[in-house]
Amino acid sequence: MKPRYAELADQLIEAIGNGTFEVGAALPSELDLSAQFGVSRATVRSALEKVQELGLISRRKRAGIRVEASKPRVAYEQSLSSVEDLVQFAVVTERHVQSIGEVSASPTLAAQLGVETGSRWLRVELLRVDAAKPDEPICWTDVYLEPTVGAGIRRELRKSSGLICGMVEERFGRSVREVRQEIRAVGVPARLAKPLAVEADGHALEITRHYVDQHGAVFEVTVSVFPANRFTYALQLRRQG
């Protein structure tokens, strides 16, 4: 048996799909939906979150709840098992560089990246975008490069496509031996809400990747924030033997 919030979500999805609530129209408030369906506001809120994750509605302060689409949107799904899968992700998306500049790792940043406090890095801020939906970026990524590496490819960063680590390999011969990856749930930082076209503190995944060369040295670290309703991370586990 489904939880009550899931049942309510299904009812709202059906009502949007059959035109009871048309695209562009406003949905009743949480309080009104609570009274209409005889459930608590907490149940309504959970149901609306599920509907919003499908891209059917948007919720903004002072703007209310608005119907954005009649059919659920298919979220971007990324399945990674090798560096080649990362390359494929870069091929099917666009890199929109927002800024490039040098930074000194503060204690907080150093802890996040796993590097020494005060170490120098070239930071590239960029959006990954699906060309079919340019107004809904897949993610925001901060790329941190060793100063020498960054200086060598800086002029090319705004022009080229593909993975930055591929540019490093081509220029310096430093191939990626492995990628160390960490994933955690976060709220969308306030500074990223506008460029990602989402609400601040909304559900998101933060993926940190350390790119290790053939000598065991980390030359690139990326920190990406993926809004929850635009990205699915797929992983297959197989038993050996």
What can you tell me about this protein's structure?
The protein has 241 residues and is an alpha+beta fold. It folds into 2 domains: 4-67, Winged helix-like DNA-binding domain superfamily/Winged helix DNA-binding domain (Arc Repressor Mutant, subunit A, Orthogonal Bundle), CATH 1.10.10; 76-234, Chorismate lyase-like (Chorismate lyase), CATH 3.40.1410.10. The protein has 8 helices and 11 strands. The strands form 3 sheets. Strands 5-6-7-10-9-8 form a 6-stranded antiparallel sheet. A 3-stranded antiparallel sheet has the order 1-3-2. It is elongated and about 65 Å long. The model is unreliable at 76-80 (pLDDT under 50).
Q: What is Rg?
A: 21 Å
What number is the mean pLDDT?
Answer: 85
Tell me the number of structural domains. Answer: 2
Helix content: 25-40%
Question: How would you sum up the global shape?
Answer: elongated
Main sheet attributes: strand count, strand direction, barrel closure: 6 strands, antiparallel
Number of contiguous helices = 8
Total beta-strand segments? 11
Structural class: alpha+beta
As for the CATH topology of the largest domain, it is Chorismate lyase
H and E string: HEHHEEEHEHEEHHEHEEE
Quick structural gist:
The protein has eight helices and eleven strands.
List the helices and strands and how they pair.
Elements: H1 4-17, E1 26-27, H2 30-37, H3 41-53, E2 57-60, E3 64-67, E4 76-79, H4 83-91, E5 94-104, H5 107-113, E6 120-129, E7 139-145, H6 147-153, H7 164-172, E8 176-187, H8 190-196, E9 203-213, E10 218-227, E11 231-234
Parallel strand pairs: 4-11
Antiparallel strand pairs: 1-3, 2-3, 5-6, 6-7, 7-10, 8-9, 9-10
Helix pairs in contact: 1-3, 2-3
